[in-house]
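Structure ticket #2291
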Amino acid sequence: MKKFLAMALALVMLLGLAACGSKTEPAADGSAAEAVTPSDDAFVVGICQLVQHEALDAATQGFKDALIEAFGEDGVVFDEQNAAGDPATCSTICDGFVTEGVDLILANATPALQAAATATDTIPVLGTSITEYGVALDLDNFNGVVGTNVSGTSDLAPLDEQAKMVTELCPDAKTVGILYCASEANSVYQAEVVKSELEAAGLTVNVYTFSDSNDVAAVTGTACDECDALYIPTDNTAASCTEAINNVAQPAGVPIIAGEEGLCKGCGIATLSISYYELGVATGEMAAKILKGEANVAEMEIGYDPNPVKKYNPELVEALGVTIPDDYTAIEG
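Resolution: structure written out below.
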């Protein structure tokens, strides 16, 4: 009855009525594990996460916690799958969700969102950890509402303020490198905005891109040789390779301003960051409204974290001898 009412009130969820087979609960590593059969009243939610790292993991957990809070442990079943950083695998996962007839898809990171939006135009799709939906979905004149079966939340922190952190914390820097994965559209967008802001402040900006995790260390080495400081936007490949980046940048004495807390914790001195867990919670609350028939995904505005926080990495700050202003909060752990 719960599912019928929600489907009747939201036409974009019609395929969800087909959900009648067995689903899978995730194993500890995020891969699909043993099949489970949900009860007739349980919603089935497919989760496609691009890669396993701290920020995306937190968003997924927040999303799940919010839905369990809304429907109880027995009211929702999660088919959680991880693409291990491969966009093509995202497509395979999302196509599988459509075949299964899940009630809603969470797409965690831009390639996952792109795959889900391609796979279905009827099942509700909510993105999270997406920087800019207009860029991700190639939308002209995007105004905050996608207008299709897609909505969600954005992890975009104010880029102009992140750029100011470079000059605030690295006042002697003359040349700044921007480092990111060229295949991540949202990273490209962030890099362009920050580059413009830094150049307006009178700095020379060099852009360095890597294609995947295999060339991260080599590209980071080149950037450190040529720059006084680095900026890394919210980039999933970089976030999964922070150890490799730090192993090059810290010995070189090159400070990194990071686009989010997970990156900063691994290789940065500071960030203006959001809470990915709370972002996931907000996305889960959106999902609950859709599944209850209280909201139409096509009319839902993209959500943002209104309270980004300046944070710093105590270990790297000390190692590099960087002075941190009083309005920054230390990253714990």
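Closing remark: The two ends are 46 Å apart (CA to CA).
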